[in-house]
């Protein structure tokens, strides 16, 4: 997804009951039955429910608006959604969110890119350098406190003696 939006997924719990969850993780695969699922087997949702592609399709194209074409024929549209306030989303597992009471869905300002996955927006090297810098500053602060404590101890115990 390029922009703000979530994929709607049908997630089954241990009791076999399913509910709709939301994710930004766009790594999907196609099952033998033609359903598009994530790594855990949760079904991607479209305008008519679970997204299913004909198993005999030789060319699959997903357009920026989420329209899915199999051999040039429209077979479905991926459901994208967004929320007015992300505070009404509850984390479920590693990368799923559940909408809680008060969540207001809004139209997403997003477009899909077939063949791409969203990468981290963090530069690992610069963040590691920042962590090292912060750790060194913390250690320097500790050293200053120990030195000050030692000076206070000497002034009370040695200088104050008659």
What is the overall silhouette? elongated
Individual helix count: 1
Quaternary state of this entry equals single chain
User: Low-confidence parts lasting 5 or more residues at pLDDT below 50?
Assistant: none
Largest sheet: 6 strands, antiparallel
- Measure the end-to-end span: 76 Å
Q: What is the residue-averaged pLDDT?
A: 87
Q: Determine the structural class based on helices, strands and strand pairing.
A: alpha+beta
Helix content: 10-25%
Count of β-strands:
15
The run of helices and strands is: EEEEEEEEEEEEEEEH
Strand residues, percent: 25-35%
Rg (C-alpha, Å): 26 Å
Give your account of this protein's structure:
The chain has 162 residues and is α+β, with helices and mostly antiparallel strands. It is built from one helix and 15 strands; from the N terminus they run βββββββββββββββα. The protein has one helix at residues 124-159; strands at residues 2-4, 6-12, 18-23, 29-30, 36-37, 43-46, 49-50, 60-62, 67-70, 73-77, 80-83, 89-92, 96-99, 105-106, 109-111. The strands form five sheets. Strands 2, 3, 6, 7, 11 and 14 form a six-stranded antiparallel sheet that branches. β8 (60-62) and β9 form a beta hairpin. The model has no long low-confidence stretch (mean pLDDT 87).
